[in-house]
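Reminder: ligand-aware prediction takes two inputs, not one.
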Amino acid sequence: MRSCLVEEEMASGLEGRLAGLACEVRFGERLAPYTTFQVGGPADALALPKDEAELVELIARCWAEGLPMSVLGGGANTLVRDGGIRGAVICLVNGFRELGLVEGDALLVEAGAGVKIPALVRFAAERGLEGVECLAGVPGTVGGALAMNAGTAERYAGEAVESVRWARLAGGGVETLPASRITFVYRGARLPEPGVVTSVRFRLRKGDAEALRAYLKEHAAMRRERQPWGVPCAGSIFRNPPGERAGRLIEVAGLKGRRVGGAEVSRVHANFLVNCGGATAADVLELIGVVRARVREAHGLDLELELKIAGEDLP
Ligand SMILES: Cc1cc2nc3c(=O)[nH]c(=O)nc-3n(C[C@H](O)[C@H](O)[C@H](O)COP(=O)(O)OP(=O)(O)OC[C@H]3O[C@@H](n4cnc5c(N)ncnc54)[C@H](O)[C@@H]3O)c2cc1C
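Here is what comes back for the chain with flavin-adenine dinucleotide:
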């Protein structure tokens, strides 16, 4: 009862601190439906700006109020802990959907951070433009693809980036950053400081529309065969160690089908953990611990997480 009252007081305090913003804010919103794992507790405040003006106003208010801010895209590479995320979670999926060729340049595509990655891949392929097909079959948003430098083992989104628009979490407006000011690494992109990407310009190459279509079809079939399909998950959980495949190490360690609560090591691809129904973040985290310990024992290797983990455990 007491903790319920404390939570209500905190929530109403936060409502006051974020009152009058143009941007939609949902207080105490469960984040599980905002992630592909379908797991996770509430955000104190889930902020859903529709455009850059709303975003800039939101960041300025959170900064002035000393509220912690974090960013969520399509939640396809994120596990939110069961206690949820404190402060404001900024999510661009309610807007930032512009997708088109930059006027006067037939090879430059601009995509808002809230655009779904498959929509970008389709847009480019339909026009016979190459450069983002490494994102085929990758769920999530363009903002998340940039932040994660998503792609295959060999090709990354960052290779095609010309520039990025972003807003610093430390306040200020939205600026354009040339790709040369971003350091792209394996499954990550370092911006000059923490910020929110609002759109990305991709410099593509003229290719063959027919060949691209065939590649995407083949790739989709390959994914359906080799990865869990249609079940809640968050893609690869661990990074591939140099010269190795995390999935192979886990499979050889005999972990396919290993379960903790509602979380299971996929029987199709061992580097995927799936939510078989009712999994909690605590289940997933415990299973991650089991996999790491067993792989260390079997192969003498420490697996590093590719998955982003956000928020707090339940008290
Ligand atoms: C079935 C499945 C298959 C997958 N296959 C692949 C694959 O082949 N290759 C691959 O690379 N990934 C793969 N993934 C992982 C995931 O799809 C990618 O990492 C994707 O880029 C995540 O995008 P998102 O918008 O969902 O990011 P989120 O999970 O929401 O966020 C990921 C990180 O990006 C940050 N972020 C998100 N949006 C922004 C923004 N606008 N500004 C600043 N930071 C931001 C977040 O803070 C977080 O740190 C797969 C996932 C699934 C579920």
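Helices lie at 2-17, 52-65, 117-126, 142-148, 209-226, 246-252, 281-299. Residues 1-6 have pLDDT under 50 and may be disordered. We will return to this case in the review session.
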